[in-house]
Amino acid sequence: MRLKTVTAEGLAHKSYFLSDHNEAMVVDPRRDCAIYAELAARECSEIKYIFETHCNEDFVTGSLDLQRQTDAEIGHSKETHFRYGDHNLAEGETFYVGDLKVKVLSTPGHTNDGLCFVVYERLDSRVPLIVFTGDTLFGGDVGRIDLLGTDSARAQSKKLHSSIVDKLLPLGDHALVYPAHGAGSVCGNHISTRSFSTVGYERQSNPLLQLDEDGFVRYLTQQELSLPPYFSRTQELNVQGPPPMPRTLSEVDSDEFEKLIEAHATTTIDTREPGAFAGSHIPGSLSIWLDGVSVYPGWVLADDEPIVLVTERPGDAKVAQTYLNRLGFDNVAAYLCNGMPDWRNRGKPIARLKTCSVEQLKNAVDRAAVIVLDVRDDHEWREGRIKGAQHLFVGYLKQQVARVPRDAPLAVYCSWGGRASLAASILAHHGYASVYNVLGAIRAWKSRGYPLERG
């Protein structure tokens, strides 16, 4: 038996390749799915099944693309009317992969179509080895229950509690737990950094499993989690069946790039680091550092918005395109060949962004000479913020930009400068002239020993 974990960076999404005796299965494949066929070739295995733990909302599934490559059968819950697939799965159905038995558990709560897949050795099918828990149970946390709306939150919490207590915990403390997400995912609140767990470890250490049903329901229904707007689109794609993932990306010179911007109302995403973006960038660009492209376009881009890319290195363009495709943004028109140096050398228009150090910010705060805007998420804000700062998460900034004052210099900060650079680029696009990105941000502020407010 061979088990490999495949991670989608940024989304903290985990998928799994499990093989035994020349047969294999994949659980919750990411959209750029060639890696699973490569693993199968390496293990001399044929992928027999592709299982989905639920209709995922935070990424576009790779099931159909992987089926096109391998002819594997797709299985997902009967509770969602998928327009593709071979098995509409229900509680208790059983499949075989080599000498392994795979049993389906229906575990609603996070969604109503939640499934877990329990793996047994066929020779001793009474003792489970592994359970792939999807978004039902994470290391140190459980799945969010608000995706169906606040009116359903209490009922979904009760379902999730029953799914865990009545179906997962009885599998036994020894059973290995492999969830669909790790730390950093928006599908939970405080997911552990552990790559896997066991039923017994979660039973003893997971704080939510120490609560009775009333406490469990109370905790989950009082959570306030961010809900990226792209979720509704990815869910629809995953029900209908996503189109094949785009394979090519055009590179164009500065003249052609300028024509694309002018003719097609494209959005330019600049994936360089904040300092480089501040030094010079194409006017109107969004500053989203390369790793941030795996998440933040889902907050700030409209559906089917045409995108062009400016990158530090040519190889970054393909990485950025893959990240965008995972979120369902397939309309990536081109990237700028030879990058910003060529753009500048041809005398094309450039813009700059102001920056400041934490020392400069501290002096300005002490003199009440600046408005401070914190664009981190809620839990970061509560854990420590600069005195007097206003708070508006970067994901909501485009929709709520009118809340941001215009009558004084504005210093924007996050944890290190990435999200603040995105926020500053949005504000500049909306005509804010005196905006500063605080480079180093909270990390540098703490390093200098400056005070923070908490609570």
Structural commentary:
By secondary structure, this protein is of the alpha/beta class. It folds into 3 domains: 2-240, Ribonuclease Z/Hydroxyacylglutathione hydrolase-like (Metallo-beta-lactamase, Chain A), CATH 3.60.15.10; 250-345, 3-Layer(aba) Sandwich (Oxidized Rhodanese, domain 1); 354-447, Rhodanese-like domain (Oxidized Rhodanese, domain 1). Helices cover 30% and strands 24% of the residues. It contains 15 helices and 24 strands. The chain has helices spanning 34-42, 63-70, 153-168, 199-205, 213-222, 231-240, 254-264, 274-279, 297-300, 314-326, 339-345, 358-366, 378-383, 418-429, 441-447; strands at 2-8, 13-20, 23-27, 46-51, 73-77, 87-89, 94-97, 100-106, 115-121, 124-134, 137-138, 141-142, 176-179, 197-198, 250-252, 267-270, 286-287, 307-310, 332-336, 354-356, 371-374, 390-391, 410-413, 435-438. Strands 1-2-3-4-5-6 form a 6-stranded mixed beta sheet, with helices on one face. It has a 6-stranded mixed beta sheet with strand order 7-8-9-10-13-14. The chain has a 5-stranded parallel beta sheet with strand order 15-19-18-16-17. β2 and β3 (23-27) form a beta hairpin. α3 packs across α5 (213-222). The longest helix is centred in the middle third of the chain and has 16 residues, at 153-168. It is globular and about 70 Å long. The N and C termini lie far apart (49 Å). The model has no long low-confidence stretch (mean pLDDT 95).
